[in-house]
Structure prediction request, 149 residues.
Amino acid sequence: MVPGALTRASAPAALLCLALALALPACVPEGAAPGAGPRTLPTGHGVQLESVRLTAGRQMVDVRFRITDPDQAATLFARDRAAALIDPRDGGRLQVQSSPFTGPMRPRGTPQAGRTYFVLFANRGGRLAPGDRVDLELGPLQARNLVVQ
Prediction:
């Protein structure tokens, strides 16, 4: 065996390390997250969508959004609020990726204006591909017909 080679036994650990690297910290400074630019979301939630992208070898979907009004966005950060990506083709629901060490891969704490936050959804089996359309449910926020990059 070659030293440092990725084995089947170490692959889950490598995926966990990648997830932890994405989750710590739970936000990035303004302007740091590249994306396809702003998209319109329903008003009244205090966020602007940055991107919906496949990541981690297409095994996760990374949804990034910028806070425009922290008071309105606070409801999206509540842990008791459900979060899911829905595949409108068959109604399949992708759940928030979770780790036994960090918990759900979604923002927590107090949102800050101008910062970009992310939510990671498990894309088990490669259900979604670039160009697919999804619906986002994040607590009271419901956005339809978003394009996966």
Notes: The two ends are 37 Å apart (CA to CA). The longest strand covers residues 47-55.
